[in-house]
């Protein structure tokens, strides 16, 4: 039997979490410290107004071998953050997110499309203001691996999609404030 050098064995063992992360179905718990769904919308045609949600939770399940997956995400609507407290108060009001009546925004998907071993699109439904509509997210970046600080397997994505806020009944200040909203999500999750 051929002797395997210790350095080669150590290298192979250190890569095992990377290989296993992509070799079977795994469920990841969203890391809310590194997950901030954000949005962009036209502000009177002069500029692009941006904001994000600071409190996100949920799970993502991926199976690269079977090319399947699912996503369950919840956002705390009142955690909206634009850097302008008076704007945030307005966005929490009944004119926009109506956070008193609808405290949670959810996204659920049972379809994940792949190119090779990497997910490229998530097809699901967004529930906002009591209305549920389809929302497809395109994944621009995807990376899984062993996190050197947390000593756990982590997956991260950058994804985006677009929606019309009027489809959810959010019609305040149309057409001065844009109807089309770009959704941008950077997310990380720990394998459970």
Secondary-structure blueprint of this entry?
Blueprint: H1 6-23, E1 26-30, E2 38-43, E3 47-53, E4 56-63, E5 68-76, E6 80-81, H2 85-92, E7 104-115, E8 118-128, E9 131-147, E10 152-164, E11 177-191
Antiparallel strand pairs: 1-4, 1-11, 2-3, 2-11, 3-6, 4-5, 5-7, 7-8, 8-9, 9-10, 10-11
Radius of gyration: 20 Å
What is the overall silhouette? globular
Distance between the termini: 38 Å
Q: What string, H for helix and E for strand, traces the elements in order?
A: HEEEEEEHEEEEE
Strand-residue fraction? over 45%
The CATH superfamily turns out to be Lipid/polyisoprenoid-binding, YceI-like
Per CATH, what is the topology?
Lipocalin
Reported for the largest beta sheet, the result is: 8 strands, antiparallel, barrel
Q: Which stretches are low in confidence, meaning pLDDT under 50 for 5 or more residues running? A: 8-13, 15-22
How many individual domains? 1
User: Under the CATH scheme, which architecture would be assigned?
Assistant: Beta Barrel
Describe this protein's structure.
With 192 residues, the protein is mainly β. The protein has a single domain (6-191), classed as Lipid/polyisoprenoid-binding, YceI-like (Lipocalin). It has 2 helices and 11 strands, in the order H-E-E-E-E-E-E-H-E-E-E-E-E. The chain has helices at residues 6-23, 85-92; strands at 26-30, 38-43, 47-53, 56-63, 68-76, 80-81, 104-115, 118-128, 131-147, 152-164, 177-191. The chain has an 8-stranded antiparallel barrel. A hairpin with a 2-residue loop joins strand 8 and strand 9. The longest helix is centred in the first third of the chain and has 18 residues, at 6-23. It is globular, with a radius of gyration of 20 Å. The two termini are 38 Å apart. Mean pLDDT is 91; it is low at 8-13 and 15-22.
């Amino acid at each position: 039997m051929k002797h395997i050098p210790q350095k080669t064995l150590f290298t192979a063992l250190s890569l095992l979490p990377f290989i296993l992360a992509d070799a079977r179905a795994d469920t990841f718990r969203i890391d809310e410290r590194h997950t901030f769904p954000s949005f962009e919308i036209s502000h009177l045609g002069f500029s692009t107004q941006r904001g994000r949600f600071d409190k996100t939770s949920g799970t993502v399940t991926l199976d690269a071998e079977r090319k399947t997956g699912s996503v369950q995400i919840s956002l705390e609507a009142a955690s909206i953050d634009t850097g302008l407290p008076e704007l945030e108060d307005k966005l929490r009001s009944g004119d926009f997110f109506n956070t008193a009546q609808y405290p949670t925004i959810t996204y659920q998907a049972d379809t994940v499309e792949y190119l090779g071993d990497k997910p490229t699109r998530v097809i699901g439904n967004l529930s906002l203001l009591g209305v549920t509509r389809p929302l497809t997210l395109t994944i621009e970046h995807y990376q899984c691996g062993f996190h050197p600080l947390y000593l756990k397997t982590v997956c991260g994505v950058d994804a985006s999609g677009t929606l019309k806020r009027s489809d959810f009944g959010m019609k305040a200040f149309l057409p001065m404030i844009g109807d089309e909203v770009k959704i941008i999500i950077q997310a990380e999750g720990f394998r459970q």
